[in-house]
Amino acid sequence: MTQCFVKIPDDFSGYPIDQFCIPKHYEQDLESVIIPKGFVLDRTERIARDIFESLDQSKPTAALCVLKGGYQFFNDLLHYLRQLNANSNKSCQLSIDFIRLKSYTDDQSTGNVKVIGGDDLSHLSGKNVLVVEDIIDTGRTMTKLLAILNQYNPHSIKVASLLVKRTKLSCGYRPDYIGFEIPDKFLIGYALDFNEYFRDLNHICVINEEGKAKYGSNSN
Ligand code: HPA
Ligand code: MG
C-alpha cells in the first residue's frame, strides 16, 4: 500500500485565531490554527474508508484507543467505521479497547513509556488490532507499545495516527494510516494536550511562548 497523507508544509503559518471559535481562556496562548476541526473530520472519513477497504473480515477487529490524546480521533474514526459497517456489503465485528500510556512532561518526551491504565489486553489474542493514536513524534512510544501488544499474540496489528511529525528525532517508524504529516512544532487541541491543558479546544493549533510559560510544569 502506498502511504497517502495530507502534507502540511514547513512554511505554512496557519490561520489567524480570530477567524475561528476559540475558548476565551486560550485566546492569548495560541500562535495559529493549523488544522481546523472540519478538515480533521473530512480526512478522518477518508481514513475510515481506507481502513475498511483493507479490513480482514475473517477475524474480529479490536480497535484500541491510545488515551488520552487519541480519544477524539478514535471517536470520530469509529463513527465513520460504524457507518461503513452498517451500509456496505461487507462488514466486520469491532470491539473497543482503551490503553493509557505516559511518556511526556511539558513538550519533552521522557523517553520511557509506561502503561498506566486501560483494558485487560489478553483478549487481543488472535484478533486484528487497530491501534488509534493522535500523534507519532519520535515514534519511540509507538515502537514500545507495539512490542507490548505483540506479547498478546494478535493475528495482525495496524496503526492509524491522525498526525505524524517531521522531526530529526524520528526513529523511522511510520504508521499504516496517516491523517496529516506536520511540521516540527508542538500542536494542541482536538484532545492533544500540553500538560493536560488544551484538550478542550476544537481545532488543532500551534501553542505560543505565552501558552508554554502559563501552562508549563514550572509555573503555577
Ligand atoms: N502535541 C501534543 N502531544 C504530543 C506532541 C505534540 O506536538 N508530540 C508528542 N506528543
Ligand atoms: Mg498520543
Radius of gyration: 17 Å
Q: List the ligand species.
A: hypoxanthine, magnesium ion
What is the makeup of the main sheet?
A: 7 strands, mixed
Q: What is the domain total for the residues?
A: 1
Strand order of the largest sheet: 1-8-7-6-3-4-5
Total strand count, please? 10
Provide the residue-averaged pLDDT: 92
Distance between the termini: 48 Å
User: Structural class, from secondary structure content?
Assistant: alpha/beta
CATH architectural arrangement: 3-Layer(aba) Sandwich
Strand content: 25-35%
Number of helices: 4
Q: What is the helix content?
A: 10-25%
- CATH fold-level topology: Rossmann fold
User: CATH first level: which class?
Assistant: Alpha Beta
Structure, described:
By secondary structure, this protein is of the alpha/beta class. It has a single domain (6-215), classed as Rossmann fold (3-Layer(aba) Sandwich), CATH 3.40.50.2020. Helices cover 24% and strands 31% of the residues. The protein is built from four helices and ten strands. The chain has helices at 37-53, 71-87, 140-150, 209-215, and strands spanning 6-7, 30-35, 61-67, 94-105, 108-118, 128-136, 156-165, 177-182, 187-188, 204-207. The protein has a seven-stranded mixed β-sheet, sandwiched between helices. Strands 2-10-9 form a three-stranded antiparallel β-sheet. β3, α2 (71-87) and β4 (94-105) form a beta-alpha-beta unit. The mean pLDDT is 92. The structure holds hypoxanthine and magnesium ion. The site of magnesium ion has 6 residues, from β6.
